[in-house]
Amino acid sequence: MRRYRYRYRCTICRTTSPVVLHPDDLDAEGDAHRQAVHGGHFPDDELAGEIDRLGRWYAALSPLAVLHARIADGLSDLRDEKTMGHYWWASAGSALLIGGSAALIALVVSAAL
Asked: Within the chain, which residues score under 70 in pLDDT?
């Protein structure tokens, strides 16, 4: 089963929460921080969202990098769901899969013309 990882970031305090595995835990992290530090107010430019196994925000990545990260995350989760970071073979497999798919599409398009 695919594990999603989330993180809360307050740009005012320049603090980032530990990784949580459920959206409800992410909401709890943000609420606890806002209550404890900001008196319940919402800081400007706070971030909360899904991250990849390398800790990068999916929203900040390019579409090709998101595709690579999602495939590598899925392959890495086959071996160990609880850790962070990609295994080298998962990252290489992801790049090979994307490159092979692009080559296959180019071949089909050129054959159709």
From this structure: 1-2
Q: Enter the tokens of residue 12.
A: 């005012």
Q: What is the DSSP string of 30-80?
A: HHHHHHHHHTTPPPTT-EEEEE-TTS-BGGGS-HHHHHHHHHHHHHHHHH-
H/E element holding 97? helix 88-112
pTM of the prediction? Answer: 0.70
Alpha-carbon distance 79 to 49, whole Å?
A: 24
Give tens-digit pLDDT for 26-36: 889 888 988 88
Cα separation, 17 vs 68, whole angstroms: 25
